[in-house]
Amino acid sequence: MNRTVSTLLSILCAATALSQTPREWEEKFRAIPKPANLREYMEKLSARPHHLGSPYDKENAEWILSKFREWGLDANIETFDVLFPTPKERAVELTSPTKFVARLQEPGLPEDPTSNQKNEQLPTYNAYSIDGDVTAPLVYVNYGIPDDYEKLERMGISVRGCIVIARYGVSWRGIKPKVAAEHGAVGCLIYSDPSGDGYSEGDVFPKGAYRPFDGVQRGSVMDMPLYPGDPLTPGVGATADAKRLSMKDVQVFTKIPVLPISYADAQPLLTALSGPVAPDEWRGTLPITYHVGPGDAKVHLTAKFNWDRKKIYDVVAKIPGSQFPDEWIVRGNHHDAWVNGAEDPISGQVALLEEARALGELLKQGWKPKRTIIYCAWDAEEQGLIGSTEWAETHADELTRKAVAYINSDGNGRGYLHVSGSHTLEKFVSDVARDINDPEKNISVWKRNQLLRILRATSADDRREIRSRSDMKIGALGSGSDYTVFIDHLGIASLNVGYGGEDGGGIYHSIYDDFYWYTHFSDTDFAYGRALAQTAGTAVMRLASAELLPFDFTNFSETVKKYLEELQKLAKSKQDDIWERNKQIEEGVFAATADPKEKSVAPPTEELPPYLNFAPLQNAIDELARSADRYDKAASIAKEKKSSSYKSVNTQLIQSERKLTHADGLPGRPWFKHQIYAPGFYTGYGVKTIPAVREAIEQKQWKLAEEQIAKVASVIEGEAALIDNASAELEKISR
To answer: CB 219: neighbour CB atoms within 10 A?
Structure first.
């Protein structure tokens, strides 16, 4: 081909590319991802255990880097040095009334080849438990949440000086040793009851998808409601020269030793318990009578660790924006796992990789995003969201100026689209969901989600509202994955996206979460992996190409109004509960409660809480609603008139989520800046909305609640003012 013809073809291709609309480019993108590629990536990435600090973890990071570069993306690896304890001594023994030694090991299975990679697997343990060697009476505490200890108090049972055994579920695992220590326990065991994800739910692995008798859930018990990331470098990136805390000053380690065990190991311990029979709602499905204790049952617990620093590897790829390179769309999923991690996290990571490959194909065809797109494969998520947190803390100033939004995924499966995140993006993600085809039902994933919500609605009014809405309601974000640092700390609008609901199982954080399990019991043909790539990739492209950034404030204001109504009901409920409790104490309904070594005394009555003045918050939310309505009208007019430049408006919209943060953070938790969403202090992952006020009420700190009402009201007023400024800009350019 001569040079003239080549030049003409290049000009023709460029002209064709320029003629493509953003939606046409999106359609091209959605046709590219292939399930066969997703399967190939998963088989490679989950072939060996790849936990933080392991050789295969580094090898996977380097392989991901090579793929990004192969697809034409500018990519590099950023490393951080973080604290990572690994076990050197573990033991759980029943010492009386009979003897039993827990196995603390998951057996490999002949059907499942990677389950036998013993030399590379992390043992069963909970990371960031303190070292300990204790022998004490055993007490069963149900899920080990604050409400369970109130129930124990009513039963006249103290855990002071005891080892508690709690079952997984209801709250995040790190809450269980935290609350136990607050009540005087000296050790904690966490077991997987078959009622949660074992034989009560279905056939156990390898016959079925559920947790086998010896299956154990590993996991971090770092006190992440204080701060996630490297325990030694809160608030700053864990670079080689970062200033680090001394071990004695770290606040996120547990206060007592803790280990996870299987239900095979738990059953002899629970069988040995005497004392009162557990309440109905505390009983699992082991073939025993569940007792609470304490009694003759004593347990010896040993947990000791190597407290080493390890290098982690974040893989970061960049597609420069053609018009607004300093406006960033960030997309992430982690690549590390507790063991082989096919479901968690590789099922999400392979979708991210296929997105990146597809965008690389579009770049070759002449597509250019207006904004910069950054793809991130995080390391060390499992131990405490470490890779994403350290990267974002390192780049905090730049992200605060430039980041438009963060889109996260983690594990993925078969079923319905699930989205949580910033409600300013609720309408946006609903529009995306309308354009994604459900591979099973051949309807939009938006429609399938709507049908599920109608099915689950509890009243005719709820069903009517769902049918009448054009958008898809999304949940609020707490914590538990890599979006945490972006939304909670930096105030960057975020979404967490994934599919699931039709592929239950019980292999979470075990050696059985691997390629064999996933290809037999989850998204076996990778159709929903392709759907995740299409969904998240379409969202990335649409944000990167939007003329006017697609933030909407009407749904947000409606949602915050509902949060206020919940707070008002909570305050009334707390008042009623205290009144009822005082009445029961006066009538002698409560059992006497005290340390067994001390004289038994009845619990004291409480003063009724004062009246809480919600008016400042109500007024601020009313102001927010007016501002949101003004913006909605101004944006509609501007779009009709096809205004040519929204740069000044977009600059303000990028900061809209930042306005919902406060420099002081939450009471006692300054790392968490967002005033509308946060993980609960006693939920760990589960979200608390308007958390400063809500948790003050829950913990009966009435003066603090009053102070936080005023503080949050001020934050919402600031948000309303920003929205008004953006509206004024739109009105000006629409004249």
So the answer is: 21
- DSSP letter for 231, please: T
CA distance 556 to 624: 9
Q: Are 538 and 30 in contact (CB under 8 A)?
A: yes
**Looking at 30-127, which runs of residues are DSSP E strands?**
74-96, 100-101, 126-127
Helix, strand, coil percent content, the chain, rounded in steps of 5? 40, 20, 40
Answer whether 134's CB lies under 8 Å from 300's CB.
Answer: yes
Beta-carbon contacts of residue 392 (< 8 Å; ≥ 6 apart): 399, 485, 486, 489, 490
φ, ψ at 119 (rounded to 5°): -70, -15
**Distance (Å, rounded) from C-alpha 484 to C-alpha 494?**
9
Buried residues in 434-447 as b, exposed as e (16+ CB within 10 A): ebbebbeeeebbbe
- For 84-309, CATH gives 3.50.30.30
CATH for 554-733 (3.40.50.300, 1.20.930.40, 3.20.20.150, 2.30.30.30): 1.20.930.40
Q: Answer yes or no: are the C-beta atoms of 544 and 359 closer than 8 Å.
A: no
Task: Provide the residue type at 279 as one letter.
Answer: P
- Answer whether 0.85 is exceeded by the pTM: yes
Q: Tokens 């043909």 — which residue?
A: 525
Determine the Cα–Cα distance for residues 3 and 8; give it in Å rounded to an integer: 9
The position carrying tokens 């969201």 is: 385
| Residue 660 near residue 652, CB atoms below 8 Å | no
DSSP letter for each residue of 185-230: -SEEEEE--HHHHSTTTSPBTTTSSBPPTT----EE---TTT--S-
Contact 9, 489 (CB under 8 A): no
Mean per-residue pLDDT pooled into runs of 10, the chain (735 residues): 52 57 96 98 98 98 98 98 98 97 97 97 98 98 96 94 97 96 98 96 97 98 97 97 96 98 98 96 97 96 98 98 98 98 98 98 98 98 98 98 98 97 98 97 95 91 88 94 98 98 95 98 98 98 97 97 96 82 72 48 73 95 98 93 86 98 97 98 94 95 96 98 97 86
Alpha carbons 493 and 330: distance in angstroms, whole number:
10
Just give the CATH number of 15-82+310-444+475-545: 3.40.630.10
What distance in Å separates the CA atoms of residue 615 and residue 619, rounded to the nearest whole number?
A: 6
* Residue 259 Ramachandran class (φ > 0 left, ψ -120 to 50 alpha, else beta): beta
Residue whose structure tokens are 């949440």: 145
Task: Provide the residue ranges of all domains of the chain, joining segments of one domain with +.
Answer: 15-82+310-444+475-545, 84-309, 554-733
What is the CA angle 192-195-201, rounded to 5? 110
Quote the radius of gyration of the chain (alpha carbons, Å): 27
Q: How far apart are CA 231 and CA 244, in angstroms?
A: 9
User: Within its chain, how far is the Cα of 417 from the centroid?
Assistant: 16
CA dist 314 and 230 (Å) reads 14
Residue 661: both structure tokens together: 């943060």
